[in-house]
Amino acid sequence: MSEAIANQAERIETLRHVISHLHQGHDPEQVRGELRTIVRQTDAVEIAAMEQQLIDGGMAVDEIRSMCDMHSQLTREILVQRIAPAPLPPGHPAETFASENIALRGAIAATRKAASALGSQSEFAPALLRLRQELHYVMDVDKHYSRKEQVLFTFLERHGITGPSRVMWAKDDEARKLLADAATQLAQCTTPQLAAEALPSLDRALAAVEEMIAKEENILLPLAIEMLTAEEWAEIFESSKIFGWCLIEPGRGYKPAASPKPNTNSNPLSILLSTGHSTIEQLEAILSTLPLDLTFVDADDRVAFYSEGPLRAFARTKAIIGRKVQYCHPVNSIGLVDRILSEFRSGTRDVAEFYVHIKDLYLHIRFFAVRDACKKYVGALEMVQDIAPLQRIQGERRLLDEELAVARA
Length: 409
Description:
By secondary structure, the protein is of the alpha+beta class. 55% of the residues lie in helices and 11% in strands. It has helices at 8-23, 28-39, 44-56, 61-75, 93-116, 121-138, 141-157, 163-187, 192-227, 230-240, 280-289, 334-346, 388-391, 399-408, and strands at 270-273, 276-279, 293-298, 303-306, 351-358, 361-371, 377-386. The radius of gyration is 28 Å and the shape is globular.
């Protein structure tokens, strides 16, 4: 093996080979020595490519996740930056992520300081309250993680980089759970002894957040800065607002490169919407799949369309298209229909709802005023749903519970 592996593809393969030794049970110090001797240096792009190769080669994401912290610790000392990045303006999405991490480090330090201040029984209550408050600040990391998972990862995936989203997301969830468990334990503490027993759980949670900060600073953010275009960062900037910010407010120095454009589709039959695109066939299939009936009445009170979903609470035929909605109801209810539509038009009302038992169905019937971006009334939407099955739901069933149910079947 030559002293310097100049070819990047060969260096990535060598890095993957050495890291594989770790998964095979080799001593971490031996692997660290191999990295220093053989790989010598690498960067964020190569680390991401190495983990991508491990996944593409059939290694389970859970296995990579379980070793992820050790990967990070072993490769940290051989990480370099190929090109020193130019300073980012305050408010650039990557700068905001980095600033949030600085704030999180401060919150973690404050939490540890509060934990060390847990003293005697007489001072215990105020000290515990302070600790819970500081931990609450750290738990604001959920906004940071959500923005990363739902926005930043999406754009990296467009470049074929799926490893971070599959591995880091799992590590984010691990940190979330550790934080929640620590908060639960501290909420149940009534004595200094119980608080002392909860501190190891707290330490694990804080360490998990710190490790993710290191991964983002050393790998994820340098990778994203190198891979993503100014236009993509502008889209990330616009898409991030819905999730909110962690501990800080973004700076105001960033000017997006261009107005984000909707993701278009090459299919000439697609309907381009502000949030994506769909063909007519796809849209009809979606409406037919929804477990409810939809009927749209235009601004002239005429039926414009209805869905043909699995629930047919009220009979509909194509003959009603263009018909005045008032004539679709019994005579004794036309006055109420007119009043609701009039209030929709005037803006004094946005919703009307009713619920009735019909045979085995418990129908929730809602009418919504539909308005355009300028708040102009464009029609009314009727939604009919059988809520009897929903009323029978108890407890919780999460996404992972489905996997357990399938595994036991």
